[in-house]
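Quick sanity check, Ribonuclease H:
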Amino acid sequence: MPTLSNQTDTFDFQTFLNAITPSSLVEIFTDGACSGNPGPGGWGAVLRCEGQEWEHSGGEVQTTNNRMEMLAAVESLTCLPLQTKIVLYTDSQYLKNGMNLWLKNWKKNGWKTADKSPVKNQDLWQRLDTLTQNQSVEWQWVRGHDGHAENERADALARNAIIAQRMGISS
């Protein structure tokens, strides 16, 4: 399904990219949301580096919350230059554990889980695997809906993306 993407610049994206140097640390705060599960979904992300911030979001007509959590990470990592040092904050244990604990065994087992069933969202796990091959990514979990400022911003972007995709708005 196509992803509708909305770019919201706190600063211009090019200004944000120009802030990234080989010694920089990029912080990414992501969230996904779904109205029904499955149902219309949205994702949002806040990226920060050297005092510069950039926000982006998108949505899909029919999806799941887990896919939106993952797509927020995929779309954010896709924007960054290779060899970037990244800390990615997510309120999704599924995403964090998938990347930190399960991915290696899924690949070794031919994209099967421990009980031999196919890995759900394999397409996005494969994209994340490819995107992180040339990045240094530390996956950090934050409690969702608990007052974490950047997580709340990412959540608002994701919820607004659901509204935008329902209205057929993209930029």
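Posting the structure with no commentary besides this: Residues 86 and 137 are 5 Å apart (CA to CA).
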